[in-house]
Amino acid sequence: MKYTLIWELLNEVESFENEPEQNGDLSLAAFTGWLVNRQVNLPRDATQTLHREPPESIISRFVFFLQRYALMYVRQVLADTPLTTFDDFAYLATLASNPGLTKIELIERNIHGKTTGMEIIRRLVSTGLVEQAEHTIDKRSKLLTVTSQGHQLLAKTRVLMKQVASVVVGDLTEAEQLQLMHLLNKLHTYHYPVYQQGSKAIDQVLKQSSAKKSEP
Asked: Residues in domain HTH marR-type (predicted)?
């Protein structure tokens, strides 16, 4: 049996323990974060910033960054289509897979507020990509379906969005992609019920988080 990896890992542990920035925190979690930062070859000033920040702050920031990178690519590939944003595509794709949704159902499936969602639906209807019909039971609601024009456009843009998806995952291996998918789905499973319950539930979660941070 070869022990090359073990010796390399031991050397990394020694370097970690000698880092003055650790301030005595020699936990496995601290070591794992330190090792990841070391492996991605971040600039020195960025690495020092990461050492000073708690993991949840770093994760939140990079999630926002990743969203912005994705939207940058999406804007580029949708530039010559009637779709102006990723949300336009997402609503159209969701409705194509689930025809006959009400406006509220479509909005909730895309994690939006009512005002924003209604504006997206209005755009799709005005461009002839989505049509609405009277609800047979609830006269206050409208049932939405994708038009033939919308299906044709969706078929073209799906190819473009697959290209974006391939770019967004970058150089992650298949195993890393599966791991990230599992973690993001776990976070989605946690947050979606809070979103469904509205502002009171959100306030409660924020209070609980604040109370947890203030614990000694």
From this structure: 59-189
